[in-house]
Amino acid sequence: MANEFPFKLKPGLSYYAKDPQAAANSLTSLLDKAESVVPLDLRSKTAVRVGATAGLRALGGEAFDKICNRVRELLKSRSTLKSEANGVKILDGSQEGSYEWVTINYLLGNLGRTYQDTVGIVDLGGGSVQMAYAISKNAASRAPSLPAGQDNYVNEMYLKGSKYYLYVHSYLHYGLLAARAEILKATEDSGNPCILEGFDG
């Protein structure tokens, strides 16, 4: 990775739950930034992908389907980057935590070393909290089995010639904004000592 270009937009896609087109349009400035750093002759070969996280996962159902479809349409019609059929998707909590762990350990130069040389991550997002760290093969073998359809506690990953057993868990609704909303909801009629008098959060 020669260069990084971290950009963040607020609000996120879930803010536009009732207006899918506005959700898609909100990404145009990010798309412009992405295109500006890819040489013109490589744009048609460079895939663009959108991975939505906890805020959009929490919407569920028809709302996030509509938003994802509008984002796909935007990428096809507006972008000079390569648009793929699976280029827009909802990341589950396990994927989100795994990608974050890989990113941090790649940037620190830890990948390819033993699991004990890697670092764990805790990401406090808006809608969820992700925790991920590498464990020993022995510890991985003792991880509890979960019912079908639920994310496994431990994922196996092969990175730079090394095998890692990655414990990953996502706590949906425990993100900063989601937790704040729940606190305000629970104390709606009794006042909240964490909020200044006269403000509703």
Compact description:
This protein has 201 residues and is α+β, with helices and mostly antiparallel strands. The chain contains seven helices and six strands, in the order ααβααβαββαββα.
CATH 2nd-level architecture of the largest domain = 2-Layer Sandwich
> How would you write the strand order of the largest sheet?
3-4-6-5
Shape: globular
CATH top level assignment of the largest domain: Alpha Beta
Average pLDDT works out at 84
Terminal-residue CA separation: 40 Å
What class, by secondary structure content?
Answer: alpha+beta
- The number of distinct structural domains comes to 2
Order of helices and strands: HHEHHEHEEHEEH
Q: Indicate the CATH topology of the largest domain.
A: Nucleotidyltransferase, domain 5
Count of helical regions? 7
> Strand tally, please?
6
Describe the structure.
This protein is an alpha+beta fold. It has 2 domains: 13-90, ATPase, nucleotide binding domain (Nucleotidyltransferase, domain 5), CATH 3.30.420; 93-176, Nucleotidyltransferase, domain 5 (2-Layer Sandwich), CATH 3.30.420.150. Helix content is 35%, strand content 22%. It has 7 helices and 6 strands, in the order ααβααβαββαββα. Strands 3-4-6-5 form a 4-stranded antiparallel sheet. Strand 3 (121-124) and strand 4 form a beta hairpin. The longest helix has 18 residues, at 61-78. The protein is globular and about 50 Å long. The N and C termini lie far apart (40 Å). The model has no long low-confidence stretch (mean pLDDT 84).
